[in-house]
Write a structure and sequence with these properties.
about 280 residues; twelve-stranded antiparallel barrel; 3 helices; mainly beta
Length: about 280
């Protein structure tokens, strides 16, 4: 109950006060004050999951100065069954994940910026099927739905425009999670993260393609648990995204495809819808 009250308060904080954001690499990067809603729908290889199974991220950003921007998100996930076969354990579940809170640091007119952030351990019902499905739906933010005591990210980004409308974004960094040892609980992990996106971006139209990857340095995660197997130490996904700007509103869609055998044995692809609002 305490966790739920904290998360509800934080949700209002995001909506009405700060508008903080932690964007995936393939979505448009905006340095101004903004908020967004991102909807992710997974399509499984063979599953009893219903069509209502999906994830939702409410996010935003608030520049504190020309150098520092507060960033973050609040994740939600829902899982339903096509057929419960009359079993009580096959009930639909909805969870609130661990919110992200961090900072972006970028000096004006420089193409480099740094991301530093934490996943706050405030999620509820993270042992449910909804949380398990969410972990494989978005490997970029799987720690949002695992009961870590603490998880953190530190990344260096290079973002540059060529010929005024062609963008190149490179990302590299580290992620890690820690959990107090307990039977059946998540273990510690440490990964090397990297990604690239390339595309065409203007005020009105944006079309971007990207690839992200993680290499397991230590420990294990739901996607990188086979530490003694070379194939089990990496996970990749490619994505294509498009959006259209209408004044301060920017709707968009994106398509994500897993390229690792370990992941695409579970999931075919993910379709996403996103809606951004930039404050004047």
């Amino acid at each position: 109950m305490t966790r739920m009250l904290i998360l509800l308060a934080l949700s209002k904080f995001v909506f009405f006060v700060t508008s903080i954001l932690a964007q995936p690499i393939w979505l448009a990067h905006d340095r101004g004050t903004s908020m967004a809603v991102e909807f992710l729908k997974p399509y499984f290889v063979d599953s009893n999951s219903s069509t209502t199974t999906a994830m939702l991220f409410i996010s935003g950003r608030l520049p504190l100065s020309q150098t520092i921007t507060i960033v973050g998100d609040i994740p939600f996930a829902h899982h339903g069954y096509k057929d419960d076969f009359g079993l009580d354990r096959l009930e639909a579940s909805t969870v609130i994940g661990n919110p992200y809170l961090g900072v972006e640091i970028q000096k004006q007119d420089l193409p480099f910026f740094v991301e530093l952030g934490l996943r706050l351990p405030l999620g509820a019902d993270l042992e449910s099927r909804a949380a398990n499905v969410a972990q494989i739906t978005d490997s970029e933010r799987f720690e949002a739905f695992i009961d870590y005591d603490l998880s953190a990210k530190a990344r260096l980004n290079y973002h540059s425009n060529f010929a005024s409308s062609v963008i190149l974004h490179l990302r590299g960094g580290w992620s890690g999670g820690h959990s107090v040892a307990q039977e059946g609980g998540p273990g510690n992990y440490s990964t090397l993260d990297y990604g690239i996106r390339l595309g065409y971006q203007m005020e009105q139209v944006s079309v971007i393609g990207g690839l992200t990857g993680h290499y397991l340095l230590d420990g294990g995660t739901p996607h990188l648990s086979r530490f003694n197997s070379k194939a089990g130490r990496t996970v990749y996904q490619i994505a294509v995204a498009a959006s259209v700007g209408f004044a301060t509103v920017r709707p968009g869609l994106h398509f994500k495809l897993p390229v690792d055998d370990f992941w695409n044995d579970e999931i075919r692809f993910v379709l996403g819808l996103n809606l951004g609002y930039r404050f004047k």
